[in-house]
Amino acid sequence: GTGRLYNFAAGPATLPPEVLAKARESLGDWQGLGYSLLETPFSSDEFISLMETTRNQIKSALALPDDYQVLLLQGGASAQFSLVPLNLLPATATAGYVETGHWSTRAFEEGRRYARARLVASSRTSQFDRIPPVDHWALSDDLQYCHITSNETANGVQFHADPSCGDIPLVADMTSDFLSRPVDIRRYGLIYAGTQKNLGPTGLVIVIIRDDLLDRARPETPTVFNYQRQLERQNRVNTPLMFAVYLVHLMLDWLTEQGGLTSIHARNIAQSRALYRVIDEDDFFQCRVLPGHRSMMNVCFGLARPQLQQRFVSEAADRGLLNLTGHSHAGGLRASLYNAQPDAAVAALAAFMTDFRQRYG
Ligand code: PMP
């Protein structure tokens, strides 16, 4: 192939070259200590200050009120499927789940091992083509929390407004749209997000929790995963994911340089619209998600003639447009457009799609 390579993977995903360059520098002499970040004690002033800075960057990006705390934990997003119920409610209590695709189903299936979990809404019967409207959710006062997946990475469905659950604490898996847009934080009791989409590293999960939810952990909750214990010990009950935290710090600097959440949101809207416009032009490409519910992060689509799919993926790769195969559970094609996806990548993909349709349509 010729030209630049563009990576449309769903995560781990493309990162800004300038951030990768800075990350490489940290493998030399970090902050004049005489050794690299990887060799730095986690109890050093330098690392403690990096951790504090990173947590404050998250607070300021989201304009978190003082009664929200930020944790940087290990185990990725999937571990939170079990750690949220362990930290928030007794085994005999009930939690609500909204099922909108592959990842919310995973959260529900795991959550029900630790609590009485109940689906309050599901779009399964329409093949996850929409977000069920909040006024139709079967919410009841016995729910200790209500769990949503704000963006379904595999199905390409996204909440475009922060739902209100009244007094029931809203818990959101924001793994694949965290820091992609401003959020109405007061609607949420707890947010968690794996960082391998918009912020870079795998294995790290950011947990944002409102103070009133902090004293509810079951006694058997592992101490390293107990939100309150970790907050009391400045997130150093165990050795933090130091390099991952550094990468998140660099990505938050980068986000600020891009103009913050309002600017990045506008870019994400424009990029996703450019692809949906090509898809909707006629019946050659198809998107089963209803307009108004479509993801700005993961554009999931297919071909009216699925036998062309392999050709699409391999011709795209020849032109440097990589990793366009959909999630194994959803099938089809997927272009992920996280914060770091350059406009040029989207323009190149839109041009390729138009050309492909002309040749095979
Ligand atoms: N939730 C969502 C919405 C995701 O997209 C993913 C990963 N694709 C996960 C959870 C699981 O993340 P991890 O592999 O880091 O556990």
TrEMBL record:
<dbReference type="InterPro" id="IPR022278">
    <property type="entry name" value="Pser_aminoTfrase"/>
</dbReference>
<keyword id="KW-0032">Aminotransferase</keyword>
<feature type="domain" description="Aminotransferase class V">
    <location>
        <begin position="6"/>
        <end position="348"/>
    </location>
</feature>
<comment type="function">
    <text>Catalyzes the reversible conversion of 3-phosphohydroxypyruvate to phosphoserine and of 3-hydroxy-2-oxo-4-phosphonooxybutanoate to phosphohydroxythreonine.</text>
</comment>
<comment type="similarity">
    <text>Belongs to the class-V pyridoxal-phosphate-dependent aminotransferase family. SerC subfamily.</text>
</comment>
<comment type="pathway">
    <text>Cofactor biosynthesis; pyridoxine 5'-phosphate biosynthesis; pyridoxine 5'-phosphate from D-erythrose 4-phosphate: step 3/5.</text>
</comment>
<keyword id="KW-0028">Amino-acid biosynthesis</keyword>
<keyword id="KW-0663">Pyridoxal phosphate</keyword>
<keyword id="KW-0718">Serine biosynthesis</keyword>
<keyword id="KW-0963">Cytoplasm</keyword>
<dbReference type="GO" id="GO:0030170">
    <property type="term" value="F:pyridoxal phosphate binding"/>
</dbReference>
<keyword id="KW-0808">Transferase</keyword>
<feature type="binding site">
    <location>
        <position position="103"/>
    </location>
    <ligand>
        <name>pyridoxal 5'-phosphate</name>
    </ligand>
</feature>
<dbReference type="GO" id="GO:0005737">
    <property type="term" value="C:cytoplasm"/>
</dbReference>
<feature type="binding site">
    <location>
        <begin position="238"/>
        <end position="239"/>
    </location>
    <ligand>
        <name>pyridoxal 5'-phosphate</name>
    </ligand>
</feature>
<dbReference type="InterPro" id="IPR015421">
    <property type="entry name" value="PyrdxlP-dep_Trfase_major"/>
</dbReference>
<feature type="modified residue" description="N6-(pyridoxal phosphate)lysine">
    <location>
        <position position="197"/>
    </location>
</feature>
<dbReference type="Pfam" id="PF00266">
    <property type="entry name" value="Aminotran_5"/>
</dbReference>
<keyword id="KW-0664">Pyridoxine biosynthesis</keyword>
<feature type="binding site">
    <location>
        <begin position="77"/>
        <end position="78"/>
    </location>
    <ligand>
        <name>pyridoxal 5'-phosphate</name>
    </ligand>
</feature>
<dbReference type="InterPro" id="IPR015422">
    <property type="entry name" value="PyrdxlP-dep_Trfase_small"/>
</dbReference>
<feature type="binding site">
    <location>
        <position position="173"/>
    </location>
    <ligand>
        <name>pyridoxal 5'-phosphate</name>
    </ligand>
</feature>
<comment type="subunit">
    <text>Homodimer.</text>
</comment>
<dbReference type="InterPro" id="IPR000192">
    <property type="entry name" value="Aminotrans_V_dom"/>
</dbReference>
<dbReference type="GO" id="GO:0004648">
    <property type="term" value="F:O-phospho-L-serine:2-oxoglutarate aminotransferase activity"/>
</dbReference>
<dbReference type="GO" id="GO:0008615">
    <property type="term" value="P:pyridoxine biosynthetic process"/>
</dbReference>
<dbReference type="GO" id="GO:0006564">
    <property type="term" value="P:L-serine biosynthetic process"/>
</dbReference>
<feature type="binding site">
    <location>
        <position position="153"/>
    </location>
    <ligand>
        <name>pyridoxal 5'-phosphate</name>
    </ligand>
</feature>
<comment type="pathway">
    <text>Amino-acid biosynthesis; L-serine biosynthesis; L-serine from 3-phospho-D-glycerate: step 2/3.</text>
</comment>
<feature type="binding site">
    <location>
        <position position="196"/>
    </location>
    <ligand>
        <name>pyridoxal 5'-phosphate</name>
    </ligand>
</feature>
<protein>
    <recommendedName>
        <fullName>Phosphoserine aminotransferase</fullName>
        <ecNumber>2.6.1.52</ecNumber>
    </recommendedName>
</protein>
<dbReference type="InterPro" id="IPR015424">
    <property type="entry name" value="PyrdxlP-dep_Trfase"/>
</dbReference>
